[in-house]
Amino acid sequence: MLTGTQPPLQRDASQPLAGQLAERYAQRIRERLLLPGARLPSVRDCARQHGVSPHTVVAAYDQLQAAGLLEARRQRGFFVRETRPAATRTPQPLAAAPRQAPVDATALIRGMFEADAARSPGLGTLPADWLDPVLLQSALRRLNQAESQALQVSYGDPSGDERLRAALSQRLADLGIHAGPAQILTTHGATHALDLLIRTQLQPGDAVLVDDPGWAIIFARLTQAGIRLLPVPRGPHGPDLATLAALAKEHAPRLYLTVPVLHNPTGHSLDLATAHKLLRLADEHDFTIVEDDSYGFLAAEHVPRLAALDGLRRVVYVSGFSKVLTPAWRVGYLAAAPEKLAALTDVKLLDGLTSSPVMERAVALCLEQGRLRRHAQRLRERLAQARQRVAALATKHGFTWAAPPDGLFGWLDVGVDTERIAQPLLDAGWLTAPGALFSATRRPGSLMRINMATSLDPAFWRLLRACADDIRGRTTPP
Known about the structure:
14 strands; alpha/beta; 13% strand; 43% helix; globular; 8-stranded mixed beta sheet
């Protein structure tokens, strides 16, 4: 265990806090000051010792596990791993490792990649059989030979394919957001757009407001960049504005990263009154709002967008196509005020030169021809039917929602700690997404994210009820 004689972690250093903490433990393990089998402090104890967030500790421990220095033992904690020189090991047949319920953002994503979508109520995307491969193949075929060859032998425009940006400008206008092609930058998916914003707008030690619950990937990325997270409770109508105002006054945040429409994980959307008050707070406390509209195609067109109300003055709008087209194409974009785009474009160039001109032109065709709009409408109708079925199954088995579900996700209350229930469900073949994964402080609780498209099997709900009853029976005094 690290002792109080250690110097404090440096918040203004170029290396993120999680990396500094991981390196301290790694050094002591290499020097044999922490021997194999030694137990490290719990996440919360370690956070208290070093004055950092629990999420920073999770990120540090994750780095140590990736380096082969730690192992996580279920319901026991983190332990120094026994290591031996490779030459002394006797080769053994490879055996499949037992699956473990997700304990952080990385584990959740790995589980989603490995999982069978039909048995993954915790999946973060639509299952493959809901998408339209014919639409994609048709778009690629419609590129004429000369056009296709020209796109394939060039890097393309650093800002993104010109036709795609023109089509995106029209898409945004349909949402009430007025942004010309010159105000749009294409990216390798919405996550890449968010990463560009983190790298251009923030420095280690800066404070950022985030939704709580919110998307674990964003928490992990910000923490790795050395950013201080300011969790804002998220309710059915949007963020808790009183809490947000108090945090903004005390910490002077640079950004607020939020999903106003079909929020992940709750499915809630921001109402108009809350949106207006939020924009006033951004003006009062001088912070930028990053509006992640990744699920926008699954929402009704009348739902208000912050960027439409603000005119891209304090709001940067981010979206993409992986949720409705295919994750494989990795086409996303952002729209922002002109003065912000130069730095964002420079970082995109340094990061990977340009994005794929062929994929971007194919998406432009999907937009221009109206086929993507029709596909999105079919998805919305199918999701509405799925939500009705899932809601009926939840009610039948005695579960309640934190608020009426909408879009792809619902925020389900199962009545017991969802981290405890995740492993027995996984042992039976069902991947779930416990609520603690969506908490900036990894706060345990009885909520879990439910994917409406992958939670239609009554067998899952019967097992969920049985597991919840079993855990409740073991924790209820006789």
